[in-house]
Amino acid sequence: MLIIGTRLFVWGSELTTELMRCGACGNAAQFIRKKGMRFITLFFVIPTIPISGVMHIAECPQCKTRYKQN
After folding, report:
1. Quick one: residue 69, left, alpha or beta (phi over 0 = left, psi -120 to 50 = alpha)?
2. Given this model, what pLDDT does residue 48 score?
3. How do residues 11-69 score in pLDDT, each as one tens digit?
4. Comparing C-alpha atoms, which of 31, 39, 17 is closest to residue 59?
5. Is the pLDDT of residue 1 over 90?
6. Residues 6+ positions from 36 with CB-CB distance below 8 Å
7. pLDDT grade, residue 70 (50/70/90)?
8. Which of 13, 22, 45, 61 is deepest in the core (most CB within 10 A)?
9. What is the DSSP string of 18-67?
10. Three-state secondary-structure class, residue 5
11. What is the residue extent of each domain of the chain?
């Protein structure tokens, strides 16, 4: 029996140059800029097939909410 799913894997960590306000917690701070890619996974852990290109993500340093950037 194979159990498959999808998961976003992220890497990198640098601060943004401008202040941003989080829509979830209202915190105004420099967000953490990361890159990520979505994969089809086996057992929800092992990445096997990429299903998206590299995405740029901004993460709130307080509540860890992630926002997709262009």
Report:
1. beta
2. 94
3. 999 999 999 999 999 999 999 999 999 999 999 899 999 999 999 999 999 999 999 99
4. 31
5. no
6. 8, 9, 10, 11, 54, 55, 57
7. confident
8. 22
9. EEEE-TTT--EEEEEEEEEEEEEEETTTEEEEE-S--EEEEE-TTT--EE
10. strand
11. 4-69
CB burial string 12-36: b at 16+ within 10 A, e below: eeeeeeeeeebeeeeeeeebbbbeb
Written as six digits, the tokens of 65 are 């909410």
Distances (CA, A) of 19 to 31, 55, 65: 7, 20, 15
Q: Find tokens 């498959």 and name the residue.
A: 4
Q: CB neighbours (10 Å) of residue 60?
A: 20
Among 47, 57, 42, CA closest to 3:
42
Residue whose structure tokens are 């994969």: 39
